[in-house]
């Protein structure tokens, strides 16, 4: 699922680091990050939004609706408001590598043939699921 939220980028001069952009995503409480360039700040914002949404989903919390882009007003001189898009499925494919155990049922004859052929159930199921999902 793709989520899109407005984010507020605030530049600040930080001693020894130069300009740093703090990014706040007001629709997601506590979703704040930073980057040392606009490019890095956007990348970090996507990571932060994805991480926050994933944590909310795991906690069984409702994901808030995004404020309309035009509803977010520039608050201070130099602030920039832009939209951050996150494909949570893509994020999970890239970041979540933890394996989970699933019990499957299959005909006994098929299990015997797979064992005789030395086929790994886990690998075969992963390959079949990826193929079926077009991944």
In angstroms, what separates the terminal alpha carbons? 15 Å
Query: What is the total tally of β strands?
Result: 4
Oligomer: single chain
In sequence order, what are the helices and strands, one letter per element? Answer: EEEHEHHH
Helix content: 25-40%
CATH class of the largest domain: Alpha Beta
Overall CATH architecture of the largest domain:
2-Layer Sandwich
Look at the structure and give the mean pLDDT.
Answer: 87
Number of helices: 4
What does this structure look like?
- By secondary structure, the protein is an alpha+beta fold.
- The chain has 2 domains: 2-95, Double Stranded RNA Binding Domain, CATH 3.30.160.250; 99-135, no CATH class.
- The protein is built from 4 helices and 4 strands; from the N terminus they run βββαβααα.
- It has a 4-stranded antiparallel beta sheet.
- A hairpin with a 3-residue loop joins β1 and β2.
- The chain is elongated and about 70 Å long.
């Amino acid at each position: 699922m793709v989520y899109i939220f407005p984010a507020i980028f605030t530049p600040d001069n930080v001693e020894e680091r130069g300009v740093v952009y703090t990014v706040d995503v007001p629709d997601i409480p506590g979703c704040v990050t930073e980057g040392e360039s606009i490019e890095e700040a956007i990348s970090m914002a996507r990571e932060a939004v994805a991480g926050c949404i994933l944590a909310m989903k795991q906690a069984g919390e409702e994901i808030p609706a995004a404020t309309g882009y035009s509803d977010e007003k520039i608050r201070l001189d130099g602030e920039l408001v832009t939209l951050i898009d996150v494909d949570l499925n893509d994020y999970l494919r890239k970041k979540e590598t933890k394996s989970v155990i699933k019990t499957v049922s299959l005909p006994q004859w098929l299990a015997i043939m797979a064992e005789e052929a030395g086929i790994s159930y886990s690998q075969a199921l992963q390959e079949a699921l990826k193929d079926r999902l077009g991944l």
